[in-house]
Amino acid sequence: MTPLTEAAELDRLPEGKLVPVFPNGLPVLLLRRGEEVFAVENRCAHMGCPLAAGELDGYVLRCPCHDWRFDLRDGKFLDAPELSLRTYAVKIKDGKVFLGVP
Length: 102
Ligand code: FES
Fold this sequence. Notes:
Structural class: mainly beta
Strand content: 35-45%
Bound molecules: FE2/S2 (inorganic) cluster
CATH architecture: 3-layer Sandwich
Distance between the termini: 10 Å
Number of domains: 1
Strand order of the largest sheet: 1-9-8
């Protein structure tokens, strides 16, 4: 199992906003929905654009470079689900968000 790394404080993550973090130096994008947090690689599966500047609609993030759309719950590319963003396990404990990043 991948060890967990502290990435953020839950109460510093605004509801429904994209927040870039760098646990262990990795570019990761967080999305908080209520008490749930989703974590994906902050790099598009197409040509690597940073996704933090993308447009969010519910759980769907549109890449700012060429409009590919991904579901942040599972990282899947909506037009071809066999492609996806890397996702990371999230654990919330004592008000802190931990991620399973290598
Ligand atoms: S780099 Fe994201 S759609 Fe092209």
